[in-house]
Specification:
The complex is a heterodimer of chains A (754) and B (154). In chain A, 30% of the residues lie in helices and 23% in strands. Chain A is α+β, with helices and mostly antiparallel strands. In chain A, the strands form eight sheets. A seven-stranded mixed β-sheet of chain A has the order 12-13-10-20-17-18-19. In chain A, strands 15-23-22-21-16 form a five-stranded mixed β-sheet. In chain A, helix 12 (404-415) packs across helix 13 (442-452), helix 17 (556-575) packs parallel to helix 21 (730-742) and helix 20 (659-678) crosses helix 21. In chain B, helix 2 packs across helix 5 (136-151). Chain B is of the alpha+beta class. Chain B has helices at 22-29, 84-91, 101-114, 120-126, 136-151; strands at 2-7, 10-15, 48-51, 54-57, 70-72. The relative contact order of chain B is 0.16. Classes of the chains: A alpha+beta (754), B alpha+beta (154). Chains A and B meet through helix 8 and helix 20 of A and helix 1, helix 2, helix 3, helix 4 and helix 5 of B.
């Protein structure tokens, strides 16, 4: 039996899990006592690749994921602390070194284009096993796809359980008793006879204790920490200014730099006049650099502080050669996508029953075209990176990144040194949202550091550079068709959408040798994989490459495809003259989890209760990243625009590690999605992004923020993601409420009534 | 030309152009990195500090105009012990990525100094900072908790 399959099966049974990782492929992710390398020296001892115990009793946990607000610095150590029976306060985290055991297996496994109903079929399981094995070998250390807890749920609990077993074995040996007679409570090993030892007191005898070849994980009923709203470990330093983000890196002798990059994708530098800038006070260098890894070519000004660098940069006269994209217009791109909707066949991701032929048998066919624009990530911490070429020929990097292993690879390639000579420290991230899955921000930093070696240099982008050099959520158009029978029941679901594809573009930037234009699940997710029980389905996508740089944006394809799907389902309900909640529920006869989520949201929102005048409700249901979310939005019109007052959210995200973090993520995801629904739009004129800063790219602020209620469906299933799944449903929930208020069906984002 | 500032109650001499925005003096010269850069055009509020008790967006505030005034940053918000807002922020578990929170706390501190019992509309009007993680509902609750605790003399 293959280990991964075995693991999935055993977790599904929900009982205690015994894992023997030494025998079964894919290879164990436990790591060895050597994984920590030189870090393990001194006052602590490594028990495996994830856990170290110090003489003070402190448990040190390797966290291979980046903290960008989603709570991984708390949720991941909770998994280890639970199995070790140690209080969270006694656990300290350290950034994991780059090692294959820390690669994100769950994220890659979820990238397969399977309908959730088919994941557990033979093909689904085989493909998942294969990709998991591949992911294990690749060791991609990536934080994304709402996958951190899903990925760590097995390995980090196993690592904690193994560490606990070793501590028990060490104590039992000392006391000359059987390990089975020992228990662990709050970081203390106890024997029935009354003897006890703190973890720290056992450190010296741990060296001779072998790493166990099997461990027993706790039964969920035994959990003491998992499932509790433990306080986030990063909150205290985030309220007193001590938290260190990438922008806060300060090193002896460090220089500060500002950057300007070619405003037109694919353009080049024609000429740089930097004489005036060089004479400005505090300026050390003006550096011209070539583009790479998606980073446009540009100019860096290095000075003794950021302001001097920014001021001097404004005096640098750069002539750009915009190249072939000088006439790029977003409006024309969208029109091209609409044409492709008619002209191209595309790739069929999903087909069931008679597919589109079933439309011929329908009594009524409903058809609509939907549209979504490009979107910027606009993380509040602008892109930045600090770099230093040391005297001994190493490249040191400090970066707020979601992709340590990819960043190191790209940095080594650009600097033309071996990856083993690149040291990377991952800082806290002032927002990620997928923007920091990219590696472009390392390029100007390396170019600058090369010119001032061995001094470190911190390159901070302006908001304008950040917003105009993003990798945008792709624009998309879609045509949805449904065939209804005489009673309005939906028989056939037929969709075709057009957009560029993120994964091939990302691969071109990060791993050009691996780039290939293969079908990309992210284009179609949200259209092809929802639970509604249409007997006949056909979902196709046309990839239309455009010059606009695109990237992964919180909830990725679901972000717009949920708007299309859930607005259109609402259209079907209205065409059938049925209540939108009941219409959805009737399409979920055998999908009990989805139905329960939908019903919980409706019940908590008082779906059947009257609302005060001027208010209307809209509902939406969407599954993404292994979790199911339903939302009911209460909306009114104020000064002609939509005003969202209250959002009731129900989520089934499987087993919950920390319900307080789940609620935070739901709230944040709703507001992130609401900003996109109400305001988000990046447009391009003459090759240049028109929105440069927040005044042209507005955000939901306090005055527009709704009340948000989170209701979690209890579940014993393995964890689903929580960082993204609550973003997709908000746009359609609001649009569906606006239809009730105005009778107008808005099929384009952002939602504009005028 | 050395400028004499008073930051968090301490004198601080800096040798910079008086036109330099206070934000960069705090961050790059005085190493007080708790105050953040977000937009450079006073649109996001990440750089909010208190000057003589008023919330000011330091990215567009020339340091020369801060002379003789009391500059207070997140590092000095509580003056040695946690401010009621910081306690409430922890109680309500407000921050996610945390990047905007210094500015949010400083804006909230200015609000509570002027209004001990802010209503929703007062909070909406005073807190115009951007939080990309969407912590607004919790910020609202935390401000109310802090206001209540301050009124109760806690």
């Amino acid at each position: 039996m293959k280990r991964r399959t075995f693991l999935l099966g055993a977790l599904g049974a929900g009982g205690a899990l015994v894992v023997g990782w030494s025998l079964l492929p894919p290879r164990s992710r436990m790591g060895s006592r050597e994984t920590w390398g030189r870090l393990a020296a001194g006052d602590s001892v490594a028990l495996n690749g994830w856990v170290r115990v110090a003489k003070t009793g402190e448990v040190i946990v390797a966290v291979p994921r980046s903290e960008m607000g989603q709570g991984v610095y708390t949720a991941l150590p909770m998994l280890v602390a639970e199995e070790m029976d140690v209080p969270l306060a006694q656990v300290r985290i350290e950034q994991a070194p780059i090692d294959a055991i820390f690669g994100n297996v769950a994220m890659l496994a979820a990238s397969l284009p399977f309908h959730p109903d088919n994941v557990h079929g033979t093909a689904g399981r085989t493909a998942q096993w294969f990709v998991s094995k591949l992911a294990r070998e690749l060791g991609l250390q990536v934080t994304g796809g709402s996958s951190s807890v899903r990925d760590a749920w097995g390995p980090m609990r196993e690592a904690g359980a193994a560490a606990r077993a070793m501590l028990v074995a060490a104590a039992a040996k000392q006391w000359n008793v059987s390990a089975g007679e020992c228990t662990v409570d709050a970081g203390i090993v106890k024997h029935a006879g009354g003897r006890q030892s703190r973890f720290g007191e056992l450190v010296q005898s741990l060296d001779v204790v072998p790493v166990p070849s099997t461990v027993r994980l706790k039964d969920p009923g035994q959990f003491r920490l998992i499932g509790t709203p433990a306080q986030r470990v990063d909150v205290p330093e985030k309220v007193d200014g001590k938290a260190r983000f990438g922008i806060d890196v300060r090193l002896p002798g460090m220089l500060f730099a500002a950057v300007r990059m070619c405003p037109v994708p694919g353009g080049r530098i024609a000429n740089v006049e930097s004489g005036v800038a060089m004479k400005r006070p505090g300026v050390e260098k003006v550096v011209r650099f070539a583009g790479a890894a998606g980073c446009a070519p540009g100019v860096v000004v290095i000075a003794t502080n950021t302001w001097l660098a920014r001021e001097a940069l404004s005096k640098v006269d750069v002539q750009w050669d915009p190249g072939a994209n000088a006439t790029l217009e977003s409006r024309a791109q969208i029109e091209g996508m609409r044409r492709a909707l008619n002209d191209e066949k595309g790739f069929t991701f999903h087909e069931r029953g008679k597919g589109s032929d079933a439309l011929k048998e329908a009594v009524m066919v409903v058809e609509a075209e939907y549209r979504a624009p490009w979107l910027a990530h606009a993380a509040l911490e602008p892109m930045n990176c600090t770099a230093q070429f040391t005297a001994d020929g190493r490249l040191k990097l400090w970066a707020p990144t979601q992709v340590p292993s990819v960043l190191r690879h790209v940095a080594a390639r650009y600097a033309q040194i071996e990856a083993s000579r690149v040291d990377l420290e991952v800082t806290l991230l002032g927002g990620g949202f997928g923007r920091r899955l990219e590696t472009d921000y390392v390029i100007p930093a390396i170019a600058a550091a090369r010119e001032v070696r061995p001094r470190p240099v911190h390159v901070l982008w302006s908001r304008e550079e950040d917003m105009t050099h993003d990798f945008y959520r792709p624009a998309a158009v879609a045509r949805l068709r449904a065939g209804l029978d005489a009673s309005g029941n939906a028989l056939a679901w037929v969709t075709k959408s057009v957009s560029d594809a993120i994964t091939p573009r990302y691969t071109e930037r990060a791993y050009p040798a691996l780039a290939a234009d293969t079908p990309d699940k992210t284009t179609a997710e949200g259209l092809i994989d929802q639970a509604y029980e249409f007997p006949h389905r056909e979902c196709a996508h046309v990839t239309l490459k455009t010059a606009v740089p695109i990237g992964y944006w919180r909830s990725v394809g679901h972000s717009h495809n949920a708007f299309f799907t859930e607005s259109f389902i609402d259209e079907l309900a209205h065409a059938a003259k049925r209540d939108p909640f009941e219409y959805r529920r009737d399409l979920l006869k055998s999908h009990l989890r989805h139905r329960a989520v939908l019903e919980l949201a409706a019940q908590k929102a008082g779906w059947t209760q009257p609302l005060s005048a001027g208010l209307a409700r809209g509902i939406a249901l969407h599954e993404s990243f292994g979790s199911i979310v339903a939302q009911v939005a209460e909306v009114s019109l104020s000064e002609g625009g939509p005003r969202v007052h209250r959002v009731v959210c129900a989520i089934d995200c499987g087993s919950v590690v920390n319900p307080q973090i789940v609620a935070q993520q739901v709230e944040g995801s709703v507001i992130f999605g609401l900003t996109a629904a109400l305001y988000g739009e990046i447009t391009i004129r003459q090759g240049r992004v028109e929105q440069e800063n927040f005044p042209q790219y507005p955000m939901v602020r306090m005055a527009e923020a709704p009340r948000i209620e989170t209701h979690i469906v209890p579940s014993g299933e393995p964890p689903g993601g929580v960082g993204e799944p609550a973003t997709p449903p908000i746009a359609p929930a609001v649009a569906n409420a606006l239809f009730v208020l105005t009778g107008k069906r808005l099929r384009s984002l952002p939602l504009r009534l005028a | 030309m050395a400028l004499e500032l008073k930051v968090n109650g301490q004198p601080a001499g800096v040798d910079v152009d008086p036109a330099m925005p206070l934000l960069w003096v705090l961050r790059d010269v005085l190493n007080l990195t708790g105050t953040k850069f977000g937009c450079g055009v006073a649109a996001c509020g990440a750089c909010t500090v208190l000057i003589d008790g008023e919330a000011v967006r330091s990215c567009v505030f020339p340091v020369g105009q801060a002379l003789g005034k009391d500059v207070r940053t997140i590092e000095g918000l509580g003056g040695g012990k946690p401010h009621a807002l910081q306690t409430a922020w922890i109680e309500r578990q407000v921050p996610q990525c945390g990047y905007c929170q210094s500015g949010m706390l400083m804006a909230a501190a200015a609000l509570l100094a002027a209004n001990s019992d802010p209503r929703d509309a007062d909070i909406d009007a005073a807190i115009t900072n951007i939080c990309r993680c969407g912590t607004y509902p919790r910020i609202r609750e935390a401000i109310r908790i802090a206001a209540q605790n301050l009124r109760g003399g806690k």
